[in-house]
Write a structure and sequence with these properties.
Structural class: mainly alpha
Strand content: under 5%
Helix content: over 70%
Distance between the termini: 57 Å
Largest sheet: none
Radius of gyration: 20 Å
Number of strands: 0
Oligomer: single chain
């Protein structure tokens, strides 16, 4: 890789920032800005880690595997699911589903909101589970590099892509500017949305829980409907979220379990 030194330097800088934030919190106990910086450090380095992972997607296989995945899904479903879902689409539905997809970006604000509202323990558990989920997805990018259905089949995408309104146009521009090819499998949007639901569903009001279910379900459908992902990416993203939630829950229980003193 020609940019290997730059990537290593970037990871070193990210690690140094996390360690510095931890040191500042210990050095200045009770200092709220230092504590918040330590708490939010993983979120602040996540954009770099995402872009760095995108630069390494081809290190194992040397090529994208879209032809294999699209052929398998076409054989399984009798047609490419992205085309099949678009056949029943219309602009208002496109706008609604894309709005659900767009809502994912709010997940990155949730830990900070929990922290500022005095629910730091819940915020830390959620942040750990979310980071475990997303970093696992980034490793998946290298294991199964996919350019994505729109990039792999531009003719089909031009013929069957759904049309929408304001949110659809905005999301399309965001994807064009910030979503590099290869960041498909597993779907980090699906994984991130489901880990949010799994972690918070028992800690929010009934109306908030209904909203979480609706947005997560809509996002799960939108990633295929909008040609951002294959169905395989969706299934893998859900599997990653379920596994990460199980690991985080087990670690949380072990951490909170009272220790019984051993008699001398």
């Amino acid at each position: 890789m020609t940019d290997c030194p730059a990537l290593l330097a970037g990871y070193a800088a990210a690690a140094s920032f996390v360690l510095a934030a931890r040191w500042a919190e210990r050095r200045f106990p009770g200092n709220r800005p230092a504590a918040l910086a330590r708490f939010a450090a993983p979120l602040l380095v996540l954009p770099f880690v995402y872009s760095a992972a995108a630069d390494t997607v081809l290190v194992l296989h040397g090529r994208y595997l879209d032809d294999t995945v699209s052929a398998w899904e076409t054989s399984l479903f009798g047609g490419l699911p992205n085309v099949l879902t678009g056949a029943v689409g219309f602009p208002p539905l496109t706008e609604l589903l894309t709005l659900c997809y767009f809502s994912f970006y709010g997940c990155f604000l949730i830990p900070v909101l929990l922290y500022t509202r005095g629910r730091r323990a819940l915020g830390e558990r959620y942040l750990f589970a979310a980071m475990l989920t997303l970093l696992t997805c980034y490793l998946g990018f290298m294991a199964v590099p996919l350019a994505g259905p729109a990039a792999a089949a531009p003719e089909l995408y031009a013929a069957y892509r759904p049309s929408g309104y304001v949110i659809t146009t905005l999301q399309g521009r965001i994807m064009a500017a910030f979503d590099p090819p290869g960041t498909c499998f597993p779907s980090p949007h699906v994984a991130g949305a489901w880990i949010t639901l799994l972690c918070l569903r028992r800690h929010v009001t009934r109306n908030q829980r209904v909203a979480l279910w609706a947005l997560t379900s809509g996002l799960t459908a939108a990633v295929v409907y909008d040609w951002y992902h294959y169905v395989s990416d969706v299934a893998a993203g859900l599997a990653v979220a379920l596994a990460a939630h199980a690991v985080a829950k087990r670690l949380s229980v072990r951490r909170e379990r009272p220790r019984i003193p051993v008699p001398a």
